[in-house]
Fold these 4 entries.
Entry 1:
Amino acid sequence: MRVLVAPDKFAGTLTAVEAAEAVAAGWHRHAPDDEIDLAPMSDGGPGFVDVLHATLGGELLAVTVTGPTGAPTPATLLVVDDTAYVESAQACGLHLTGAQGGEQATTRGVGELLAAAIGTGVRRVVVGLGGSGTSDGGAGLLAGLGATADVPLDEGPAGLDGIGTIDLAAARERVAGVEVVVASDVDNPLSGLFGAAKVFGPQKGLTEERLVVVDAWLERFAEVAGRRTALEPGAGAAGGLGFALLLLGGTRTPGIGLVTDAVGLPARARAADLVVTGEGAFDFSSRAGKVPAGVAAVAEQAVRPCVALAGAVLVGAREMRALGMESAYSVVDLVGEERAFADPAGSLADLAERVARTWSR
């Protein structure tokens, strides 16, 4: 049997590459002769660069950038032919802020990553958005590329208080001649009821009382930098990084679609008998541009069954099938929560072995 294994990361426990390898190991315990094609996936968030490197190869370049709290932070960019891939979470991710960066954390390092990518001489830079711990509207990114204002742009959204003018000329000149692609499935505007602060601020440490304040700072930033752009779908992605990249002429594309195309997933699904995907928690949010839904859509187009292996399955059978899955299986249900966290790879492998007994002919 030919099995395509295309999981997302299991947040906090396994990278997508590790998850794919664990599934393959467990599957082969029951069906050692099955052919397994590993295609770890990402929607643009954490793991974006590693996933693409695992499939596309290319050259990994190590750089040091300004982290969200101002400390030097290591990051990696991937160069494949004339395209560079940048993962914004490496420079401003939630794992770097500890969910305490709602008002002061900066995205300056993302601008420095983008500048480093452009410095390699590529014609195209793809910036994966997701998993950010920042809410500065991408002001720090703009500062990292040379933009200036009458207030500090690299001191988080709090630094934008009272902004009156901004000069983007240097930043736009820095990216001139390079195609900038924004890989994100988030379609929120920058500010307002469905904006970056109101929707995503709480997970970054913003209290209910401060959401209104930060949203007002972003609203003023939008008035000064580009009100129309701030209303575009995706401007609120990654705490407003989408806004900054759109201001610089970037074009937005769904992250899962970009990765799907880059790794050739449709052709690989057609060559398989079964498609296996997965993520840490398979729930209602899995519908909104997440990896399992994207992989299931590819499987459906290839007329192949798709099953999900997840840390926890939080939807019923009807909702699961609405997401395009034949079945979904839970690590926690099999081994318990304690072991699932203590030995995530081994636990996922055990689940894969169990699933193989059902699906492998």
Entry 2:
Amino acid sequence: MRLAALLLTLLLALPTVSAAREPTPAPPFAVPGLVEAHLTPAHWIDALDEPDRVILTPAQIAAQNARMRAEDASIHRLEALPARIAGTQVRAWIEALSKLPANELFDVHGKPVSRHDLGRIEANLALGALPADQATRYGMVVRRAALRTFPTGLRVFSRAGDTDIDRFQESALFPGDPVAIVHESRDGDWYFVVSERYAAWIEKQYVAEGDRDAIFAWGQRTPFLVVTGATARTAYSPENPAVSDVQLEMGVRVPVVSDWPSMDELNGQLPAAAHVIELPVRGDDGRLSFAPALLPRSADVASDYLPLTEANILRQAFKFLGERYGWGHSYNARDCSGFASEIYRSFGVLIPRNTSAQAVSPALNRLPFDKGDPYAQRLQALREARPGDLVYMPGHVMMMIGHVDGEPFVIHDTSGMSWKPEGSDTLVRLHLNGVVVTPVVPMMTSATTPTIDRLSSIQRIRP
């Protein structure tokens, strides 16, 4: 009895733990007006009256894409290229891109890049080797690869120590992207290629040259899968490194090998828990072939492009939430315009690569702003904008996701935002550097200029 009484005394002396203890409140967000609920697509979907209403049918999307290819000068119609390309055209493509800046550049260690080194990079363009004309050659990208301003992997920056924005980085291409191969660097390591949305330099090791008709037929094969996650990766395969651990980005379409025998192994695995897909492969001779690969059933994929609805747009956008900002698709990520275009690619919608072209594309439903348009008019347009509408300012794009008490909120891939706390004249700079949710009204581009006054247009992918 004495022992039991002692134990009871000790237990009563311990601190009590309440089953109904209040959860520890989350720390406040640095972004003004942001709360935890804003970081889920469900919050914005639940606020919509008809979140699953189809905005554009597949037939309407096909018609819009055809208009994009016909009317937007930034889009290259690869299938319409002539059998032979004039050297003057190739020179024009290269010289439009590969221009050395006049300002000083710095390497990743913060050291100035010498004019001698820049001269060698420029000489690697080999413009003097351009023929008067040449047969049009086609290829296909076999791995995610950078598109570069010059045929070099050297990363250069405008300021010493500021190594996020590589001034020689343009974009990226993904497995299965078709290209026209129009020139080769002096050192033989790079191609200048023309893709549907960009013309730039790419390392030769990532491009396989092949037959024109076979390349375009691969992109139309059925059945197929569309990557609907931020990324998907094929199964690791030591038996066939060419199709092992291949990264596929949102919106990439790959044909399915539907008749693969269920009892036949592929690269050391039975496909009982994987899709058998077909991927482009580059041979030792640089030629294109196709090989089967395993894509795990756990991958976020669909058997067709997603229906274009506001709910689906929100779900797709939030799959990138928190990803690091990657200028020109660097850091194995994407930038603001790549973020927008890859979301829409998962619906089969084609839009230009860069904000400068996206913001003015005549093939979209555009609401332009003039410099003299008042703040109130711009704000009203944002209050009437719908989820998925793309909001542009010089050099940046944001995607509308909804409104809180009538105030517009966006999701975007951004280096940061500035705002002024109430009662203060001092700008607070937030180094966000990724895909984030922010309100638009508090954003400032300078101490006296609200971001809303800098908006140039709203592009709506809808009737």
Entry 3:
Amino acid sequence: MNYFKFEYLWLDGYKPVANIRSKTKVIHMDSFDGDATKLPKWSFDGSSTRQAEGHFSDCTLIPKRAYLDPARENAYLVICEVYNPDGTPHASNTRQTINEEKAKDYWIGFEQEYVLMGTNGRPVGFPEGGYPEPQGPYYCAVGYQNATGRDIIEEHFDICLKAGIKITGINAEVMLGQWEYQCFSIDALKACDDLIISRYLLYRVTERHRVIAELHPKPIKGDWNGSGMHTNFSFPYMKEVGGKEYFEKYLTEFGKYHDEHIQEYGAFNDERLTGIHETASISDYSFGVSDRGASIRIPSYTPEHDWKGYVEDRRPASNADPYRIIARILKTSAIAHEAAIS
């Protein structure tokens, strides 16, 4: 009989931004086929994660999806949902708000931006007590003066791919010390799970390098780009039927729920969505072809393919909960689609 290490991961009850928590469970078994639903439930102290009171503190972790953990022997990373002792979903359990069957119709691509920060609270590459040259040469850059922390990014890139996460690309972003990776899945719920695991692995890699992966959407004030998590999405009608008229009707209807989306799209997003630095204002809604100053960009790919393709919601912040993003997109999309085809 072999032993396996299972890292149970969950989102805690902190507000306005939940943290990833985890702990390791050793289970002796002959083999593990990757089916997380065969793993046992496990409890934790919810009073230490703002998910319970001290006098009644047990919360339950229910395994939902497992990934290979390439950094440890005989190890897996396990996405869990948090439940109350009475068997009901905990209020912080945003994963369970997604309809699993409907999620299978959606292709999702998250563009996760973040900034590598030193322990001095400044992005890596920023001179002590000052600022580098204005942004411009740093986007997709190469060279020590323009790209900092590449060894960390490459390590994270490789470990995600080995874990089975479909990272489709990485690049240096507009601000020095800022990076992005793209995380894609043809199942919206799996895309969310992949994103949480990829963030966890990012934290673990940066932990070893003694730098901080900062997900605040505006970590450096002033004339510097913020960090977002642009969410690309498509579903069968968009990919197979589409049409310019359909996209315009769909996105017009989609915009009627702008305020509801902003509520689900991350904390401190007002500091980022200002109408400058490649963003639309948080108080406005707009869409346009190849327009990075719009709330929703219609990539040039879509009109070039007879108006069949996908759209990019540019509003989500880098610290947003992917489950909340997708739950809201699924809800609004169903309404917008019906209005567009009627």
Entry 4:
Amino acid sequence: MENLKQLLYKMLIIGFDGKDILNNKKLITNIQNGLGGVILFDHYIDDKTKSKNIQSPQQVKKLNKSLQSISESPLIICIDQEGGKVARLKEEKGFNITLSAKEIASLEEKDAKKEYENLSFQLKNLGINCNFAPLVDLGINKESKIIYGLDRAYGEDSEQVVKYAQIFMDALSKNQIISVLKHFPGHGSAKGDSHEGFVDITKTWDEIELIPYKKLLHKTKMIMSAHVYNGKIDENYPATLSFKTNTQLLRKELGFNGVLVTDDLQMLAIKKHYKKEETIELAINSGADILMYCNQLSNDDTDETIDMMMHLVQNKKISIDRIKEANHRINRLLEGI
């Protein structure tokens, strides 16, 4: 049995600086301690002219090979490659162009399949084994800048969303890449952006937003939570921190038994309203298996995060059984990559 610290490291995905790991002793140590995964970004959010982890196909492939070489178990190497405006691998750096969900939904199924097979093959060739896609939010709020405004939704009709999301998932699966349905329980009706602050969808959310999850969750091994507040489901907490959303609804009612990963816990919808240790406690106890710190909006020290997690377990605010359950799900996930 791994020691407690190893179990906790496995429950983290982090962002890091640099296009190689040669001088990143902190990251190397984190990975050697059992870090669950990393997420790659093309540029820094506060300076889009400065590249962060991605320079060229050759460089990314070399970086990912280096990352895996120092990890005892398979490292989850993640990216946001939805297509269109949410694509970390860009044409100007030598990567294949990727169409947006809106553009994909205008194609015949065979053409959509070809697009997604090309995308998935490229990810596999680069050594990326987890894509935070497909986005299955319904494009029902035309005022949404973060979903509808960026052409990230396949449409407002759940059948259309399910059809094209399934094509994407099949292509990823064919290349041993983890697909991630997002953002549970639905972000498409939200007007606001949870990167920037509190987003309340109580009045706009509809149960139809659960349909893609009901139809696709048995085909995926990972789902990402949303930071939206939905008083129809939980009157106290946003979805990422909500036991009612993540355990009662997603696990018990819908029957999902895969890995639940949080969206970036540095987003202001969370960070503005909850202290870090409280966030960790609520997220894990809500049913989240992996906590994500992208280190784009701020910088969180991983050792500090682990110390907080240790403190919460040692003080019985998080049970060791919950930690073991999360690790069991993560280990099952790793078997397929």
